[in-house]
Amino acid sequence: MSTLLGYRRAAQGIDPPYDHADYVSTHKRAPRHAPIRIAHTLSEITGPRLGAELVGPGDADLTRFAGGEALGERIIVTGRVLDEDGRPVRGALIELWQANSSGRYAHDIDQHEAPLDPHFSGVGRVATSADGAYRFATIKPAAYPWKNHHNAWRPAHIHFSLFGPGFATRLITQMYFPGDPLLKLDPIYHSVPDPAARERLVCAFDIETTVPERALGYRFDIVLRGRDATPMEA
Amino acid sequence: MKRPLTPSQTIGPFFHRALLHEGWNDLAARGAAGERVVIEGRVLDGDGVPVSDAMIETWQANAAGSYDHPEDRQERDGQEKPLESDFHGFGRTATSTDGSFGLRTIKPGPVRPVPGGGDATQAPHINLSVFARGLLKRLVTRIYFPDEPLNEADPLLSMLPTSRRATLIARAVRGGAAERVLHFDIVLQGDNETVFLDV
After folding, report:
1. What does CATH list as the number for A3-233?
2. Do B51 and A29 lie within an 8 Å CB cutoff?
3. Buried (b) or exposed (e) across A175-200, using 16+ Cβ within 10 A?
4. What is the pLDDT of residues A131-142, one digit of tens each?
5. N or C end of chain A: smaller count of CB under 10 Å?
6. CATH number of B16-187
């Protein structure tokens, strides 16, 4: 007989609800039935192992694209990916995407009347090191309008996609910037019920990460679910 | 030291260039063993309107029921459920403007018993995540296979009311010598709402 360790459940208030009144797109997309809680099996404990083999040269530097330098404020974003017990999540792929310094995505469906930058794709990849650390260079994204309500603007943000060790630890989230006045008005940011959990989505300016004459530095740590303390019999 | 979790946020509508890659919707492209299946379906919202900006991810065992992951090593040690170098079990695609998606894969084998759940083997299934604008966190469900005798005793299917169980079982559309085509709609809300799982 062997044992399997499941993953811990998120405490109340950390993850957003599916139906969030102030975010209009949730209204027709949120299920009416509560999701059915299941004990973790091999199906949830295992998961795809995507890592450094998917990261090509230059993938962690979004400041250059198609032979030229992107416009805007260069920044470095760095941090560690850990589990709830502080263990590093090693060799994990992080996929990134963001708007450019004018608030425009290089994407067909983005019709915001702000200029595209031929030297900025807004797409990046990086893998964590043995101590869970990652680092990439990019351009600070700008805010952009959206149609959720009158005069609605998304605060500047970078999308992060991560797997962690199992299907149960999959996470897609957004990183915001400190001091952004739009944060207090943003229904997506405010969908996280617990204010302390919400603030964990905001990176911190870091002078140690800042590269002299080159780029401001920000730190953003990501914490994925940890393992249950008690093994289940299998 | 206990560290607090990072919350989920929506994938939004602009993920395609960052997350979609050629071939990630064809898990059976290389020489994996097993029955070829094509899963076709649509993602629909509470008004029955196609969801044209969803990302679908799948995770499954190979034809022998083995996940390509170090924690599924028990079977491998005995060589009863060998891994294959040409099958890793992960798929990713997005819906089109009409809400449709498609994946080619192989039918997985049965997955070993649920921990603490007695000795019931899990019927062959594909684990599936849906991400979309308007979903602040992913939705998780499973695709089970039609005409599968193990469905009867599957621990998850058995705990669902009959009326909702059918939402997790793909419908056979057409068969063929080379591959079988199955249909699996994902209804986010309303009548025939798909059963979603809190994992």
Report:
1. 2.60.130.10
2. yes
3. bbbeebebbebbbbbbbbeeeebbeb
4. 999 999 999 999
5. N
6. 2.60.130.10
Cβ B78 vs Cβ B38: under 8 Å: no
Q: What is the pLDDT of residues A39-82, one digit of tens each?
A: 999 999 999 999 999 999 999 999 999 999 999 999 999 999 99
Phi, psi dihedral angles at A3 (to 5 degrees): -125, 150
* CA closest to A83 among chain B residues: B3
What is the per-residue pLDDT for B77?
46
B/e letters for A73-94, b = 16+ CB within 10 Å, e = fewer, are ebbbbbbbbbbbeeebbbebbb
Nearest-CA residue of chain A relative to B116? A233
Comparing alpha-carbon positions, the chain B residue that sits nearest to A1 is: B74
Q: What value of ipTM does the predicted structure carry?
A: 0.96
Which residues in chain A have their CB less than 8 angstroms from residue B197's CB? 35-38
Contact between A159 and B12 using a beta-carbon 8 Å cutoff: yes
Query: Could you tell me how far CA A96 lies from the centroid of its own chain?
Result: 7
Active site residues of A: 105, 144, 154, 157, 159
pTM more than 0.90? yes
Q: What angle do CA B53, B58, B62 make, to 5 degrees?
A: 160
Taking the domains of chain A in order of start, what are their residue ranges?
A: 3-233
Whole-angstrom Cα distance, residue A191 to residue B11?
14
* Better-scored residue on pLDDT, A232 or B124: B124
CA distance A200 to A224: 12
Using H for helix, E for strand and C for coil, what is the string for A23-76?
A: CHHHCCCCCCCCCEECCCCHHHHCCCCCCHHHCCCCCCECCEECCEECCCCEEE
